[in-house]
Design a protein that fits this description.
Helix content: 25-40%
Bound molecules: zinc ion
Distance between the termini: 46 Å
Number of helices: 8
Strand order of the largest sheet: 3-5-4
Largest sheet: 3 strands, antiparallel
Oligomer: single chain
Number of domains: 2
Low-confidence stretches: 189-194
Shape: globular
């Protein structure tokens, strides 16, 4: 399936190198933000680097999910799903507390960035299975992870009607915080005091 960004000609999922962990309609977080923020490609004539195809897309600023430092997402494939400023910060995410600490981070990131508002536990498990090759994750396990105190605070829950499953949504007021720091608890207390 082709990326929904009309300016992009890539596929949503690349079989050999799947860096796209959160987007089911776009090839990358970059393209989803590009469309959401109504960005335009830089016309070739305006670009000093007109020979380089990747340069016709502007950088999009984001923040490191661990330390909050500014990072740039670029259209280039390896830059288009960036989440951390450095290897050190990536390592900190991998070392989140608990056996499934990093999985919970990925789950929260999918809820926040994944392009749909409400998610069932099954839908989350399915996307994580497809994108991240985490095959052992059942809907029940996902629901359990979402009930963990450090995840629960950033998730809103809606009971399904009748036999419909419970739905989950990322609380937008938490969107501006680096996710790893949030899960670790760095931002809860320190932020109340300022
Ligand atoms: Zn794309
Ligand atoms: Zn960082």
């Amino acid at each position: 399936m082709k990326c929904w960004n009309a300016c992009c000609d890539r596929l949503v999922d690349r079989p050999m190198q799947n860096l796209n962990k959160t987007q089911t309609d776009y090839c990358s977080l970059y393209c989803s933000l590009f469309v959401k923020n109504k960005l335009q490609p830089i016309p070739y004539s305006d670009s000093k680097h007109h020979k380089n195809h990747a340069k016709k897309f502007p950088n999009i600023s984001a923040q490191c999910e661990n330390c909050g430092d500014g990072i740039n997402l670029g259209y280039e494939f390896s830059e288009s799903n960036k989440a951390f400023c450095s290897k050190v910060c990536h390592q900190k995410a991998r070392k989140l507390q608990g056996r499934r600490g990093f999985v919970r981070y990925q789950m929260a990131k999918l809820l926040r960035d994944g392009g749909r508002e409400w998610w069932s536990a099954r839908a989350l498990a399915q996307v994580m299975d497809n994108k991240q090759m985490i095959h052992t994750l059942s809907a029940g396990a996902v629901a359990q992870h979402l009930r963990r105190p450090q995840i629960k605070i950033m998730i809103e829950t809606k009971k399904g009607e009748g036999s419909a499953p419970t739905q989950y949504r990322f609380r937008r007021e938490y969107s501006r915080y680096p996710l790893v720091a949030l899960i670790r608890g760095d931002f809860n207390d320190s932020h109340r005091n300022t």
